[in-house]
Design goal:
Blueprint (H helix, E strand, L loop, with lengths): L6 H10 L4 H20 L10 H14 L4 E6 L6 E6 L6 E7 L4 E8 L5 E8 L3 H15 L3
Antiparallel strand pairs: 1-2, 2-3, 3-4, 4-5
Helix pairs in contact: 1-2, 3-4
């Protein structure tokens, strides 16, 4: 059953950290889609939404200063927040990061030119807020944000 993560909690957390309205709206859109899809799903209810994952996602967005187009997602099986960064308008290069509540980040990079290449892995951080510079190295290998 999906934990009723209050929308106001998300808004308050975003304003507390001075997140822009456009970035907050992307998070709220992912939340609305997740909740709507779950209410329409009669067989298997989605996993609880993980607050710690949301906090890590917000910290990432605020610290990385992403310049490329991106979308926010919530995984229905795990309740974890993620971000998909698109390198160009044709979506030929996509980097997806999933933020686990234990400060683990799962990443997957896919490119479709000239052949399909996929690079994926897991990054573990003792203190992710201080370690985002290390994560930048992974991102620079894939998509220059």
């Amino acid at each position: 059953m999906v934990q009723e993560l209050d929308k106001q909690y998300i808004i308050d957390l975003a304003y507390k950290h001075f997140m822009s309205k456009s970035k907050l709206n992307k998070i709220l859109l992912a939340y609305d889609i997740y909740m709507s899809d779950n209410s329409e799903n009669t067989f298997n209810k989605f996993s609880d939404i993980k607050k710690d994952s949301l906090i890590l996602l917000m910290s990432f967005i605020l610290n990385m200063k992403i310049k490329k187009d991106f979308n926010i997602l919530i995984d229905s099986e795990t309740g974890l927040f993620g971000i998909t960064i698109l390198n160009n308008k044709n979506c030929k290069q996509i980097l997806t990061l999933i933020f686990k509540e234990n400060s683990e980040i799962i990443f997957s990079y896919v490119t479709g030119k000239p052949e399909i290449v996929k690079i994926s892995g897991t990054a573990f951080f003792d203190n992710p807020l201080e370690s985002f510079n290390e994560l930048k190295k992974i991102i620079k290998l894939t998509i220059n944000t």
